[in-house]
Design a protein that fits this description.
3 domains; alpha+beta; Arc Repressor Mutant, subunit A
């Protein structure tokens, strides 16, 4: 968070641990004043630098691990008996708009203004303005304001990204089987990412993986497979 220090985040985590949650999502604050106008009230010099964000996360991570939580992907923690931990160990972990989940349902229905639904055919987003959303519902209409229909490549790239975010690895055998890719096609997908991140990724006949030192960069590495990647101005910091 803005103005947060390792001492303050340690105190917050200790208070959270006292509640004994089964699972925790540990996200960095997303500073997007061009989208959320109220955020202009937070001066940029109050935001932690990327190195400080990593330090804050590492402080919290160590406390969760010391208290017996399993690390789930890049930003979740769960008790060993929780469904999220079981899914992570069995390779069934998934990630949606809300974070990591063990729910493999193909449909996610978003409720409320600006919410995004996912269907096998694509995405649909409700009107972002509350007044427009409520007006549509009162008139008996869907609030859908925009959407995106998936192509075959969209599904491929979505699964590549999800595999990295969940398991830190892309299993080449899965993509040969489920998407009909041959070794040349896989090599062409991996090459730009391997070139951009060097030792932070490892490529072999088995696929592409992110070793331990590269895992803080997982979001950035996964973005390398996004055909719709926005400019840096369109994102909050990835680290």
């Amino acid at each position: 968070m803005p103005y947060q220090s390792p001492v303050r985040i340690a105190d917050s985590v200790q208070k959270l641990l006292a509640l004994g949650p089964d699972r925790v999502a540990l996200y960095g604050y997303a500073h997007v004043p061009w989208m959320a106008r109220r955020q202009v009230m937070i001066p940029s010099d109050g935001l932690p630098r990327p190195e400080e964000r990593l330090q804050l996360f590492e402080t919290a991570r160590q406390l969760f691990v010391a208290d017996g939580y399993d690390e789930i992907g890049i930003d979740h923690f769960a008790r060993p008996g929780d469904g999220l931990s079981v899914a992570a160990r069995s390779g069934a972990l998934r990630r949606n708009f809300q974070g990591y989940t063990e729910d493999g349902a193909a449909v996610l229905v978003g409720l409320g203004a600006s919410s995004i639904s996912r269907f096998p055919q694509g995405y649909a987003q409700n009107a972002p303005a509350t007044s427009a959303h409520v007006g549509a519902i009162r008139d008996g209409r869907f609030s859908t304001a925009r959407g995106h229909a998936f192509t075959g490549e969209d599904r491929l790239r979505a699964r590549l990204i999800e595999a990295l975010m969940c398991d830190f690895r892309i299993d080449a055998a899965e993509f040969r089987r489920d998407f009909g890719l041959d070794d040349a096609a896989l090599a062409a997908l991996f090459a730009p990412v391997a070139e951009a991140f060097g030792a932070m990724v490892q490529v072999s006949d088995e696929g592409l993986s992110i070793p331990e030192p590269g895992r803080p960069l997982t979001r950035m590495i996964a973005r390398g497979f996004d055909a719709y990647a926005m400019s840096e101005k369109g994102h909050s910091p990835a680290v």
